[in-house]
Structure to design on (146 residues):
């Protein structure tokens, strides 16, 4: 998985000052940025083995994911740790988690779900909007929400 930090600075093309080639380039950059965000936030899954607490298993799965990203140069390491905590009430056999992985003093948020009936963990990296009050450019997959 390639992790890309992209800030899409232009949400709408200004017709009054931009040439057709500039508008086309802006639209293409926005399209490519959206694809990169979709890939970065794509769901990952792992089996939930018996005997390990669910929260610990999810932390380990995200840590493996982060180490792979660091090893392939997509993120700067070293990995400093992963912490998860339950988010909201358990719904049937599904429990949502909010997680944070820290690498090179940077916090990377993740959303996760443990499905104890299916014995499966699912998690997504969460890339918030670059502007604090704006909605996310690409919503996180419903698979990563309980």
């Amino acid at each position: 998985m390639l992790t890309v930090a992209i800030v899409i600075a232009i949400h709408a093309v200004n017709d009054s000052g931009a040439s057709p080639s500039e508008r086309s380039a802006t639209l293409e950059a926005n399209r490519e940025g959206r694809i990169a965000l979709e890939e970065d936030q794509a769901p990952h899954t792992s089996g939930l083995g018996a005997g390990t607490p669910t929260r610990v298993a999810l932390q380990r799965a995200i840590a493996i994911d982060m180490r792979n990203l660091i090893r392939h140069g997509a993120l700067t390491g070293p990995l400093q740790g992963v912490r998860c905590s339950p988010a909201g009430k358990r719904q049937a056999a599904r429990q949502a988690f909010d997680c944070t992985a820290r690498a090179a003093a940077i916090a990377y948020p993740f959303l996760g779900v443990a499905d104890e009936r299916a014995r499966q963990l699912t998690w997504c990296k969460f890339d918030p909007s670059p502007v604090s009050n704006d909605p996310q450019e690409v919503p996180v997959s419903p698979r990563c929400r309980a």
Summary: Residues 44-144 form one domain. Residues 20-40 form the longest helix (21 residues). The chain has two helices and five strands.
